[in-house]
Design goal:
- This protein has 378 residues and is an alpha/beta fold.
- The protein folds into two domains: 123 residues, no CATH class; 235 residues, Spore Coat Polysaccharide Biosynthesis Protein SpsA, Chain A (Alpha-Beta Complex).
- The chain contains 14 helices and eight strands.
- An eight-stranded mixed sheet has the order 3-2-1-4-7-6-8-5, with helices on both faces.
- Helix 3 links the parallel strand 2 and strand 3.
- The protein is globular and about 70 Å long.
- The relative contact order is 0.15.
């Protein structure tokens, strides 16, 4: 049995390291110096905001401070906030115009974020591009110029950035790099960016989208009930003939804090079982797969005094090394030592527990809860 576990883990990491689209390289990035565009197209940024008083002022000011040369304005959609979000947004400074509107009551069948974005679209007019960005994300002044340059010069209908998540507290430092790593493993950026692959993905914190491509994909109504709305949007755009691009950034960053395990656990629990299409079979296979792929190699090494199978130990050691090697670029990107990759098996086990809890929350009809709204089964 131990030799099977060790060899399976080694085979899995050999595939992931050498044949899974180089997902671990973390090399999909926007050029630091954007190519010129003439003329610069019109853009409207739409920011859905529900009880975001802590961050909306900084986020809105950063949007208004964009050094974009074309027509640009910002719409903040206040989604039934009770903490003064709208008032704070109105006071944000900057050179570009900013409007604050109130989202209508949540329509049946819509998630709150998508309904807020739809409300913003109705007020946006007919810009060439819309920029969906979150109320807790800070973008440096050059961001929009870089996004538009990529979209226009590379002929992409959707350009998205996985913004840099906060990684300062104990739990953030342990779980955030792993979250980015797992996302890249699930949605290899190179595959998503290839016209030859059907895989599609985006990161909802920063999505620049050509308006005509959105209309061709059926608008937001086509994905109105999707909890994992960013990837659903990318799939709709790519499935309707659009070209997409997803990358990492060192500059745009999230202001959302997670000083304890609770917020991170809730973040994963909200979408994990949805990612598995609410399938208990897929849940079981996922948990077993995580155990074999992540826990198998170190278990084969650490239990050597009991099983005394040298071949299993060697296979486990190589698999554990491959795992750490694959994780290293993400750790370095988040300014953590590569050696921290040795504890990735424990972190994977914790994520497995979150995934199981997501399924149990769904069973208890409280799955998909977020900011006072529940998108689980009725």
């Amino acid at each position: 049995m131990i030799i099977f576990i060790a060899v399976f883990g080694l085979a899995a990491w050999t595939y992931l390291l050498f044949f899974h689209h180089g997902f671990w390289r973390a090399d999909q990035r926007l050029p630091a110096k954007p190519a010129p565009v003439e003329p610069w197209p019109s853009v409207v940024a739409i920011v859905p905001a529900r009880n975001e008083a802590e961050s909306i002022g900084q986020a809105a000011s950063a949007l208004r401070a964009q050094n974009y040369a074309g027509p640009f304005r910002v719409i903040v959609v206040d989604d039934a906030s009770s903490d003064g979000t709208a008032e704070i947004a109105r006071t944000a400074g900057g050179k570009h115009a900013l409007d604050v509107i109130t989202a209508p009551p949540l329509p049946a069948g819509w998630t709150g974020k998508l309904a807020a974005l739809e409300a913003g679209l109705t007020q946006a007019g007919t810009p060439d591009y819309v920029w969906f960005t979150d109320a807790d994300v800070m973008h440096p002044p050059a961001t929009l110029t870089q996004l538009v340059s990529k979209a226009v010069n590379d002929k992409r209908d959707l350009v998205s950035l996985m913004v840099r998540l906060r990684c300062e507290s104990f739990w953030e430092r342990r779980l955030i790099p792993a979250f980015i790593f797992f996302f890249q493993m699930l949605y290899p950026f190179r595959a998503a960016n290839s016209d030859k692959s059907r895989l599609a993905a985006a990161a909802g914190g920063c999505v620049l989208l050509r308006r005509e491509a959105l209309l061709r994909a059926g608008g937001l109504e086509a994905i109105r009930g999707d909890v994992i709305d960013d990837c659903a949007l990318a799939a709709a755009v790519k499935g309707s003939g659009g070209r997409i691009w997803l990358g990492l950034t060192d500059t745009s960053h999230s202001l959302r804090r997670a000083d304890s395990l609770g917020p991170l656990w809730s973040m994963v629990r909200r979408t994990a079982f949805t990612q598995l299409r609410h399938s208990w079979l897929l849940l079981a296979l996922t948990v077993v797969g995580l155990g074999l792929v992540f826990l198998g190699p170190p278990v084969a090494v650490l239990t050597t005094p009991w099983h005394r199978d040298i071949l299993a130990t060697v296979a486990g050691a190589i698999g554990w090394f491959f795992m750490s090697m694959a994780y290293a670029p993400t750790l370095i990107d988040y300014r953590r030592k590569p050696g921290a990759g040795l504890v990735l098996p424990l972190i994977a086990a914790l994520y497995a527990a979150m995934t199981v809890d997501s399924a149990l929350a769904h069973l208890a009809r409280r799955g998909g809860s977020w900011k006072g709204r529940n998108y689980g089964p009725s």
